[in-house]
Amino acid sequence: MVVSTQHGAGAGRSASRTTAAPEYESPSLLHVGKRPMHVPLRSHDTLESAVHAFDVDPQAQGYSGGQYLLSGVPWAFKLFANPDAVPPEFSEPGYDASGWGTIPVPCSWECAGHGQPIYTNFIYPILLDPPYVPKDDNPTGCYRHTFVVDAGKLEGSRAFLSFNGVCSAFYVWVNGAYVGFSKDSKLPAEFEVSSMLQAGANELAVQVMRWSDATYLEDQDMWRLSGIQRDVLLTLKPRAAHIADFSIRTPLTFGAGCAPTEAPGPPGHRPPSVGEGELTSAGLVAEVHVAGDEAALKGAKVIMHILHVDGSPACAPLTTDVVADRWYARGTAHVGGHVRDREGGGEGSRNGGAVASFSADAAMLLGQLPRLWSAEDPFHHTVVFELVALGGMRSEFESAQLGFRHTEVSRARLLHNGRPLILRGVNRHEFDPVTGGSVPRGAMICDIVTMKRAGINAVRTSHYPNDVQWYELCTIYGLHLIDEANIETHGFDPLFTHPRNHPACQPEWLPAILDRAVRMHARDEYNCVRDAVEPGNEARLACNWHVRMHARDKNFACVTLWSLGNEAGYGAAHDAMYAYLRANDPTRPVHYEGGGSRTAATDVVCPMYARPHQMKGLAEAVDAGRDDRPIILSEYAHCMGNSVGNLREYWQAFESHPSLAGGFIWDWRDQCLLATKAPPPTDEGASPKAQHSRVTGRAAAASAAAARAALRAPEFNLEPGEYWAYGGDFGETQHDGQFCGNGLVFADFTPKPELAEVKACMQPLGFSWAPAKGGSGTHPDTTLPHSSWDAPIRVKVSNKYDYLDTGHLALQWRLLLDGAPVHPSVLLKGAAFEPGAPPAAGECEHWESLLRVPVLAARTSGEFRIPQLTLGAVLRAAARASATGVALGVRAVVGGGGAHPAGWARWCGSGGAAAAGPHVIAEAQLELPAPPRQWAAALEPWDVGGSLVAAPGPSVPHGTRMTAEAEALLPPALLRCLLPAAEEDPGSPGLQVSTEPDGSVVVAGPGGMLVTVSGTTGCLRDMRAPGGEALLGGELCPNLFRAPTDNDRGGSAGGSYAARWVAAGLDRMAVDGRVELAVLPGASATAVVEVRARFAMRPSASLLRARLAAGGGDAGGAGVGEMGGSHWFAVVEEDGSGDEEKEGEQVAGGAAGDTPPVDALTAAAAGAEPAPDPCEGSVSVSVAYRVHACGLVETDWLIDAVDALPARLDRKLHKSLPRVGVSVPLPGHLDSVTWMGAGPHACYPDRKAAAPVRQHTAAVADMHVPYIFPQESCGRADVRWAMLRRSGAPAPAGGGGGGGGGGGGGGNGARQACGLAFAVTRGAAPMQLSCSRYSVAASNAARHDCGLPGAEDAVRAAEPSHGLGAPRSGPRTYVCMDAAHMGVGGDDSWSPSVHAEYLVPPAAYGFSLCLVPIRGEAVDGSDSGLIAGLAGSSL
Question: Is 635 a catalytic residue?
Answer without folding.
Answer: yes
